[in-house]
C-alpha cells in the first residue's frame, strides 16, 4: 500500500511510536517509508534504533518529502507547529491529525491546505487495542481514505463518520472512556481492599472480571442486549440485586450519562478555543 509513499510523523511521541510500531509490525509500511520530526535529537535517535526510521529536527524537512503528514503533537503546541508548516506540505499530500480537539477548519486554515483527516484515538491505541473515530474534509480522495484506514488500523479498530460533530461525541465516549473505566476499576479494587482482600488479589479479580465480561459480551454467538446479560447474573433476592439496588439509588446511570455529556460539551468548547473554568460553573444545567 505504501510502497513509494512516505508518511511523516510531526511529533515523535507515544502515539506516533504506537503508529510506527503498528504500521511496521502489521506490514502496512516499510521503515524506509516512515519519517519522524521533533525537537529532540535523542528521541529521533531512539526511534531510529528501534525501528530504523529517519528523523529530522526540522519539521519541514520531513513534510516536504511526505505523501501523508501525521500531526501528533500536543494540542498546546499545535498553533506553533501549523505556522511553521504553512507552505511546506506537498499539494498532493494529505494531513492526518490525531490532535485532540483540533478542528478540520483550524488545521486547514493554519496550513493553507484542504486535504485534512481528523481523528480521535484513545489510550489503548498504544498497545494496538484502541478505537479511533475519524472524518475527512471534502477534498480528501478515495485513495487517501483507504490509506487512512490502514494507518489508523495500526492503532486498533477504526470507525469512519460523516460528520465532524461525531468527533466531539467520540471524544466524550471512547477518547475519554478509559478514564471512566479506570475510575470504576479503582473503586472496585478499593472496595475489595475494604472487605479485606490484599490489594494484589483485589486488582487481579477486578481486571479479569472486566476483561472477561467484555469478551463474554463480544464473543457470544447470540448477541444479547447488555441489560439481558446483567439480568442473567441477577437472581431474585440475590447478591447482584442487592448491589444493583444501591448503584441505581446512588444515581450511577445518571452520573455516567451526565459525565459523558459534560465531556462532550467541554470538547466542543475546547474546539472553539474555550477558556478553562472551574467545573462547578459548567454543565450544571443538565
Ligand atoms: N496518548 C493518547 O492516548 C492519546 C489519545 C488521543 C489523542 N491523543 C493525541 O495525540 C497527540 C500526541 O499525544 P502523545 O501522548 O503522543 O504526546 P507526546 O508523547 O507528548 O508526544 C508529543 C511529541 O511532540 C513533540 N514535539 C513537541 N514540540 C514539537 C514541535 N514544535 N514540533 C514537532 N514535535 C514536537 C514532543 O517532543 P518532546 O518530547 O521533545 O517535547 C513529543 O515527542 C496529542 O495531540 C493528543 O491529544 C493522544
Question: Would you give an account of this structure?
Answer:
With 286 residues, the protein is of the alpha/beta class. It has 12 helices and 8 strands. An 8-stranded mixed sheet has the order 3-2-1-4-5-6-7-8, with helices on both faces. α7 crosses α12 and α8 packs across α9. The radius of gyration is 22 Å and the shape is elongated. The N and C termini lie far apart (47 Å). The relative contact order is 0.09. It binds NADP nicotinamide-adenine-dinucleotide phosphate.
Strand content: 5-15%
Number of helices: 12
Please tell me the overall pLDDT. 93
> Helical amount among residues, as a percent range?
40-55%
| Low-confidence residue ranges | 282-286
Question: Structural class of the helices, strands and pairings?
Answer: alpha/beta
Quick gist of this model?
The protein is an alpha/beta fold.
Features:
286 residues; alpha/beta; eight-stranded mixed β-sheet; 13% strand; disordered C terminus
Topology at a glance:
Elements lengths: L6 E4 L3 H12 L8 E4 L3 H11 L2 E3 L2 H5 L4 E4 L6 H8 L8 E4 L6 H8 L4 E5 L9 E7 L5 H12 L2 E5 L4 H11 L1 H19 L3 H21 L6 H7 L6 H11 L2 H20 L15
Parallel strand pairs: 1-2, 1-4, 2-3, 4-5, 5-6, 7-8
Antiparallel strand pairs: 6-7
Amino acid at each position: 500500500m505504501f510502497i513509494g509513499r512516505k508518511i511523516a510523523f510531526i511529533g515523535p511521541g507515544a502515539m506516533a511510536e504506537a503508529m510506527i510500531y503498528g504500521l511496521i509490525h502489521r506490514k502496512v509500511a516499510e521503515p524506509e517509508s516512515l519519517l519522524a520530526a521533533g525537537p529532540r535529537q535523542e528521541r529521533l535517535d531512539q526511534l531510529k534504533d528501534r525501528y530504523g526510521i529517519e528523523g529530522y529536527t526540522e519539521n519541514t524537512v520531513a513534510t516536504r518529502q511526505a505523501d501523508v503528514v501525521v500531526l501528533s503533537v500536543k494540542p498546546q503546541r499545535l498553533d506553533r507547529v501549523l505556522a511553521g508548516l504553512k507552505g511546506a506540505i506537498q499539494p498532493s499530500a494529505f494531513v492526518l491529525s490525531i490532535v485532540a480537539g483540533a478542528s478540520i477548519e483550524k488545521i486547514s486554515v493554519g496550513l493553507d491546505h484542504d486535504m485534512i483527516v481528523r481523528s480521535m484515538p484513545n489510550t489503548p491505541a498504544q498497545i494496538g487495542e484502541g478505537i479511533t473515530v475519524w472524518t475527512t474534509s471534502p477534498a480528501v480522495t478515495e485513495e487517501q481514505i483507504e490509506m487512512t484506514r490502514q494507518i489508523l488500523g495500526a492503532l486498533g479498530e477504526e470507525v469512519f463518520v460523516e460528520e465532524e460533530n461525531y468527533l466531539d461525541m467520540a471524544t466524550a465516549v471512547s477518547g475519554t472512556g478509559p478514564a471512566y473505566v479506570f475510575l470504576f476499576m479503582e473503586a472496585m479494587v478499593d472496595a475489595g481492599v475494604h472487605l479485606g482482600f490484599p490489594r494484589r488479589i483485589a486488582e487481579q479479580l477486578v481486571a479479569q472480571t472486566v476483561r472477561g465480561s467484555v469478551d463474554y459480551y463480544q464473543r457470544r454467538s447470540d448477541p444479547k442486549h447488555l441489560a439481558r446479560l446483567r439480568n442473567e447474573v441477577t437472581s431474585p433476592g440475590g447478591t447482584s440485586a442487592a448491589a444493583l439496588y444501591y448503584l441505581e439509588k446512588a444515581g450511577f446511570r445518571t452520573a455516567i450519562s451526565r459525565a459523558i455529556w459534560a465531556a462532550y460539551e467541554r470538547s466542543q468548547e475546547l474546539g472553539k478555543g474555550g477558556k478553562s473554568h472551574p467545573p462547578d460553573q459548567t454543565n450544571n444545567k443538565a
